[in-house]
Write a structure and sequence with these properties.
With 249 residues, the chain is mostly helical. The protein has 2 domains: 82 residues, Winged helix-like DNA-binding domain superfamily/Winged helix DNA-binding domain (Arc Repressor Mutant, subunit A, Orthogonal Bundle), CATH 1.10.10.10; 138 residues, Four Helix Bundle (Hemerythrin (Met), subunit A), CATH 1.20.120. Helices cover 66% and strands 3% of the residues. A two-stranded antiparallel ribbon has the order 1-2. Strand 1 and strand 2 form a beta hairpin. The chain starts with a helix and ends in an 11-residue tail after the last helix. Keywords: DNA-binding, Transcription, Transcription regulation. This is DNA-binding transcriptional regulator, FadR family. GO terms for molecular function: DNA binding; DNA-binding transcription factor activity.
């Protein structure tokens, strides 16, 4: 897994000057403080704002450019690129979108993306999973059922989906794990099934149902079971009126 979910759960923070600038500007662009198409303040002003050297600022700008968020232009300045150019598979960019009031449209698109690839991965797993992969799936089902708190449940849930991707044996699936982490984080903050013992048990069982049809080699049933779990999660979140991703975890 990446660090998106674990960092959010454990309260990881900014650790150095470079990260301070990246976080500050990244959050600002996502929140609209620096709108799409606008020019960022000049280097001198930004260096003063963040209390960093020009060297640190330049490195931070390179990081943001690599995420597709800004475009430096000679004799013009640094312009904020349109959101469609931003790398939403990037861990930090996703985290910035989830840190604050989360747009319902953004959440809907996140779950649409999950539906576009996770059921297919479950279908491949049904065809390719070996004994070790199946044991890992069932171990995470047990971990979800026995989780003592919402954090443990979320991490076991994420690991289950990662194990499905491992069993699918397609390297490209590993590049989209951050999208699943983002969805888990939203679910935990807004409407975690682990908050209610009955819901927790039901969710753990539905994941076990996925493992069962994968173990039985039933591709179509695996696809349908995975889609049902994702749609259930979206239904639970979409019915929750709270949209703040800063809700207590």
């Amino acid at each position: 897994m990446t660090d998106l979910l674990r960092t959010a759960l454990d309260g990881g923070g900014v650790r150095n000057s470079h990260a301070l600038v990246v976080e500050g500007l990244g959050h600002g662009m996502v929140a609209g403080q620096y709108p799409e198409g606008s020019l960022l303040p000049n280097d001198e002003e930004l260096a003063k704002t963040f209390g960093v050297s020009r060297t640190v600022l330049r490195e931070a700008m390179k990081t943001l450019a690599a995420k597709g968020m800004i475009e430096p232009r000679s004799r013009v300045g640094t312009r904020v690129k349109p959101r469609r150019a931003w790398n939403l598979f990037d861990q930090q960019v996703l985290a910035w979108h989830l840190d604050g009031d989360v747009s319902p449209d953004f959440l809907a698109q996140l779950f649409e993306m999950r539906l576009s690839f996770e059921p297919f991965a479950a279908g491949l797993a049904a065809e390719r999973a070996g004994p070790e992969a199946l044991a890992a799936l069932y171990a995470q089902c047990d971990a979800m059922a026995e989780a003592k708190d919402e954090r443990a449940f979320a991490l076991a849930d994420l690991e289950f989906h990662r194990c499905v991707h491992e069993a699918a044996a397609n390297a490209f699936f590993h590049t989209v794990i951050t999208l699943i982490e983002a969805a888990m984080l939203v679910a935990l903050r807004l409407s975690s099934p682990a908050a209610d013992p009955g819901s927790k048990a039901g969710s753990a069982q539905r994941h076990r149902d996925i493992a069962d049809v994968i173990a039985a080699g039933k591709r179509r049933e695996a696809e349908m079971a995975m889609a049902a779990v994702i749609e259930e999660g979206w239904d639970r979140i979409s019915r929750n009126p709270v949209r703040s991703a800063r809700s207590s975890t």
